[in-house]
Amino acid sequence: ELDYVNELKKLISDKDPPPQIFTLLSRQFISLYDVYCLATESNLKAAEISKKTGMPEFLAIKYLRQAKTYKKEALAQILSTLSDLDSRVKSGRIDPVKAIEIFIGGL
Fold first, then answer.
1. Please, which contacts does 52-56 make with residues 24 or more away whose CB atoms are closer than 8 Å?
2. What is the pLDDT of residues 37-76, one digit of tens each?
């Protein structure tokens, strides 16, 4: 099995509820997108991003490092996918674990 499937099974076996895992993934990419936009469109540095967003500076630095591996369009597509999967989970059309597997498999 793929590493992400093993990690997901570990999180679930550690009693982390799948909806909570999905929410954490969503928050991660929303923050990453926000930091990306602030850095590229407003030319803000980590300290300024920290002040503007309220996140600790070390976290802004981490997100800045991660943001360099993405293009804005890719992050926007990831957020769109997360939104679609979230809607499908909330409407009962897909199991939360399956939604996480689909999302992580598509990265």
1. 55/31
2. 999 999 999 999 999 999 999 999 999 999 989 999 999 9
Reference 9, options 107, 105, 97, 99; nearest CA is: 97
- Write out the two tokens for 63: 């997100």
Alpha helices by DSSP H, the chain:
3-13, 18-41, 46-53, 57-67, 72-90, 96-105
DSSP characters over 57-73: HHHHHHHHHHHTT--HH
Q: Full-prediction pTM beyond 0.90?
A: no
Please state, as a whole number, how many other Cβ atoms lie within 10 Å of the Cβ of residue 105: 10
Among residues 104, 29, 102, the alpha carbon closest in space to that of 66 is found at: 29
